[in-house]
Amino acid sequence: YSIKYNFKIISLRIPNTFGLNQKKSGDDIGLIGSFIESSINNQEIVVYGSHRLRSILYVEDLVEIIIKLDFDKINNFKAINANGKSILISDLAEKINFISGKGKLKILPVPDEIKQNDMSNSALDESELYKNIGKFNYTDLNISLAKTINYFKSWFGDIIWFLNMSYIKMR
Question: Any bridge partners for residue 9, and if so which?
């Protein structure tokens, strides 16, 4: 259709996205949402394998990317990847527990059913994104996670306040 009708179309491929206004309850609250929910309820976050990576993208960064996309720089159709930040799943769980001040981490061997469907440690190539919008600086992960944890905690009535998000440090 893009060629036949001279439409300019961008297919933006994104990883696990998280942030304010995401679903906070139910079966499909996402990887980060489920980790946060477990952590703030002082439950165990179970991670399968200690060397598995995931790419994650803060919703405010996604919005900024979408706003900056320049359709004048494409002809008809273009697939563009936004990788966000790649992080070990176990490190992500530890960060969430540290920032929330609660929770536990349990690392188990990767079950066969996960091994069969696992995305492995692949990251999306962002070269087309940078060609279109220029270099992009993602929000500091500790800040984006703290904002999202506060959002989830407000749902449960237990808000944590950080006076200056830029000073959140990991161990």
Answer: 77
- For residue 76, give every residue at least 6 positions away whose Cβ sits within 8 Å of its Cβ, in sequence order, or none: 2, 3, 6, 7, 8, 9
How far apart CA 162 and CA 21 sit, in angstroms, is 19
CB atoms within 10 A of CB 73: 13
pTM of the predicted model, to two decimals?
Answer: 0.85
Q: How far apart are the first and last CA of the chain?
A: 52
**Tokens of residue 100, six digits:** 């929330």
53-58/85-88 β-pairing: antiparallel
Task: Tell me the pLDDT band of 123, cut-offs 50, 70 and 90.
Answer: confident
Q: How far apart are CA 55 and CA 131, in angstroms?
A: 20
Each residue's pLDDT tens digit, 23-45? 888 888 999 999 999 999 999 99
What percentage of the chain carries pLDDT values higher than 70? 89
Report the alpha-carbon angle 100-86-162, nearest 5. Answer: 25
Separation of alpha carbons 4 and 13, rounded Å: 23
Q: What is the spatial distance between Cα 33 and Cα 58, in angstroms, rounded to a whole number?
A: 12
